[in-house]
Specification:
disordered N terminus; single chain; alpha+beta; 11 helices; six-stranded mixed sheet; 381 residues
């Protein structure tokens, strides 16, 4: 009888503990905020989005900024792919994903980039950060500075790998799309971004890409998939098919498979339904404009480059343009002075404008210049 009561008490206690544990677990479970943006790479034109300006943790996705800064150093000649980098104690101390760099070990910038891009290696990230700036903390300052220059105003970094302090690596899908568009400019990175499997140390260290789109999406050019407890599953990916390049950023997914499926669906949607075009100039676009009070009666006109736009398939006929210039301008005119604008519309709705400028300078007329012109005219007979 007593034994039965004791058993009953034990079972009851176990049930209570189980219920309490489930309650605690439920309270601690992170509720991720899904954020997305689908965009055209060269123009930044947004095709589809959801909560794209919401600030959320991005965890190890911050390595994309680390890679960008290294790429920029290589591009301007301050670093080289075959340059050797010596591993510091700080780089060696990194945990999580790593390529097991040992203190004093030397590895090329190229292999370290492979370690970061393909293997998501935290130790390789720190090694590169130190190679660029001397210390990781100085490199983080550069990361945040570059984010500001790219107008990633809702982005903040506290380290170069995102594995530690992952909840403090904050950005938005919109900001990350700007980072992806900048990375797209560096063609020499593409072989690393699209590599599924590679090796370092003559086959001694295996690298496996966490972005499965590199295996199953045609035209893929990068960039990265990652997961941390604070960020959930995230991906920034882009593809280039027949001269069209579209990108997608998905943040805060609980289910990795759904994330990859959504990324493919969105990219396929963009390629199937949208095109890139450069609008035509107005038919009445003037070559010059009259100048009053100048040493010459006319000045030539030039205009800024007309940018590409992204439109639905079959919508070319909805694009129109109109020129706005005065009948004349007064001297003096300086080369590059804004004279007017070209406006571009879709379905009659303004989308952007291009400045029309003076091709060269025209001085104002005075008595001395009038006499010189008159004298030249008389001497021509």
């Amino acid at each position: 009888m007593l034994i039965g009561k004791i058993k009953g008490i034990i079972v009851s206690a176990a049930i209570v503990l189980a219920v309490c544990s489930e309650a605690v677990f439920a309270e601690e479970k992170i509720e991720y905020k899904e954020c997305s943006i689908l965009f055209e790479i060269s123009t930044g034109a947004v095709i589809d989005s959801g909560s794209e300006t919401e600030c959320v943790p991005i965890g190890t996705m911050n390595k994309l900024m680390t890679v960008l800064l290294v790429a920029e150093k290589i591009e301007n000649g301050e670093m080289a792919l075959d340059e050797s980098v010596k591993t510091s104690a700080a780089a060696n101390s990194m945990q999580g994903a790593q390529i097991w760099l040992m203190p004093g070990e030397e590895m090329s910038v190229e292999d370290l980039l492979k370690g970061v891009i393909i293997g998501n290696a935290n130790d390789a990230s720190v090694a590169l950060a130190e190679a660029v700036c001397g210390t990781e903390s100085d490199f983080v300052e550069l990361m945040n500075q570059r984010a500001g220059e790219l107008e990633m105003y809702d982005t903040s970094f506290t380290n170069c790998c995102g594995y530690y302090d992952d909840s403090s690596q904050i950005s938005t899908a919109e900001d990350m799309s700007k980072l992806v568009s900048e990375l797209f400019k560096y063609d020499f990175l593409q072989p690393y971004f699209v590599c599924w499997l590679d090796y370092l140390r003559d086959g001694g260290t295996e690298l496996v890409n966490s972005n499965i789109l590199v295996k199953n999406f045609s035209g893929i050019i990068g960039f990265k998939a990652g997961f941390t407890e604070s960020s959930g599953n995230c991906i920034a990916a882009a593809a280039n098919i027949d001269g069209k390049a579209f990108g997608v950023v998905l943040l805060g997914y609980e289910d990795k498979d759904i994330m990859f499926s959504d990324a493919k669906r969105l990219l396929n949607y963009a390629f199937s339904n949208y095109q890139i075009m450069k609008p035509s100039l107005p038919e009445n676009m003037p070559d010059e404009i009259s100048v009053r009070g100048g040493v010459t009666k006319f000045v030539g006109l030039e205009y800024d480059d007309v940018r590409n736009i992204v439109i639905p398939n079959g919508a070319v006929g909805t694009i129109s343009s109109e020129v706005f210039v005065p009948d004349y301008v007064y001297a003096p005119v300086n080369a590059g002075d804004k004279i007017g604008e070209i406006h571009f519309y879709r379905n009659g709705k303004f989308i952007f404008s291009v400045d029309i400028n003076a091709e060269k300078s025209v001085e104002g007329m005075n008595i001395k210049k009038s006499m010189v012109i008159l004298l030249k005219f008389l001497l021509s007979f």
